[in-house]
Design brief:
The protein is an alpha+beta fold. The protein contains six helices and seven strands; from the N terminus they run αβαββαββββααα. Bound molecules: 2-acetamido-2-deoxy-beta-D-glucopyranose (2 copies).
C-alpha cells in the first residue's frame, strides 16, 4: 500500500518534471531525411519547415548518407556556399539545437546539393508568442506577462495531479 503510493507520487512528479524540461525533436524532411529533393523541388525543406512550429531549445535532427549539414549566414544561404560555416557536421546523424529565437539557415556542404534544393530556413518563435491562443487576446504591453510561461490545459491538469499526488502521499504518511 505505502510503496504503491510512493510509486504513484514518484510517477506523477516525474511527469511534472518531464513537462517542464520537454523540448521537441524534429526529424528534418520527415522520412526523406536530409538529401537532394527527388522531385527537383527547391522549396522542399522550406515547405517542411513551414509546417512546423519551432520554439527555443527544440532540436532538429538531420539524417543523411554521404552528405553534410552546415549552418550558414543568410548571405551564404543565398549563394549556396560557405567557406567558414557557423556549424558543420557530416557524421550522418546531426542533432542541432535551436538555442535562440530568429532565423537559422542550413545548407548541404556537398558541392551542388544546395543548388538542387538541399537547403532550409528555420524560424524559431520568440518565447512570448510561442502560445498564440493566450497571446492573441491580450494587450502586448505587460513585459511580465511575456516572460510568464503558458501551459496547455493538459499540462495544467497534469501539474495539478502531480501536486495532488504529492500531497495525498504526505497526508497518508501523517495519518
Ligand atoms: C534553453 O536552454 C538553456 C540551457 O539549457 C536555458 O538556460 C534556457 O532558459 C532555455 N530557454 C528556453 C526558452 O527554454
Ligand atoms: C505600454 O508600454 C509602453 C512602454 O513600454 C508605455 O509607454 C505605455 O503607456 C503602455 N501602455 C499601457 C496601456 O500600459
Amino acid at each position: 500500500m505505502e510503496s504503491s503510493k510512493l510509486l504513484l507520487s514518484f510517477l506523477l512528479l516525474s511527469t511534472f518534471k518531464f513537462f517542464f524540461v520537454t523540448c521537441t525533436k524534429f526529424e528534418v524532411g520527415g522520412t526523406n531525411g536530409w538529401e537532394v529533393p527527388k522531385n527537383k523541388n527547391q522549396q522542399f525543406y522550406n515547405q517542411w519547415a513551414s509546417q512546423n512550429r519551432f520554439n527555443v531549445n527544440d532540436t532538429v535532427y538531420f539524417k543523411y548518407k554521404k552528405d553534410s549539414v552546415m549552418e550558414v549566414t543568410e548571405e551564404e544561404y543565398g549563394k549556396c556556399h560557405s567557406t567558414h560555416p557557423l556549424f558543420f557536421s557530416n557524421n550522418g546523424e546531426t542533432v542541432f539545437k535551436l538555442d535562440r529565437p530568429g532565423f537559422f539557415f542550413f545548407i548541404s556542404g556537398v558541392a551542388g546539393h544546395c543548388q538542387r534544393g538541399q537547403k532550409m530556413i528555420i524560424k524559431v518563435l520568440e518565447p512570448e508568442i510561442a502560445n498564440p491562443p493566450q497571446a492573441q487576446n491580450q494587450k502586448h504591453n505587460s513585459s511580465a506577462l511575456g516572460i510568464m510561461p503558458t501551459y496547455s490545459p493538459t499540462i495544467l491538469l497534469l501539474m495539478i495531479l502531480s501536486v495532488f499526488g504529492a500531497f495525498s502521499f504526505q497526508f497518508s504518511l501523517i495519518i
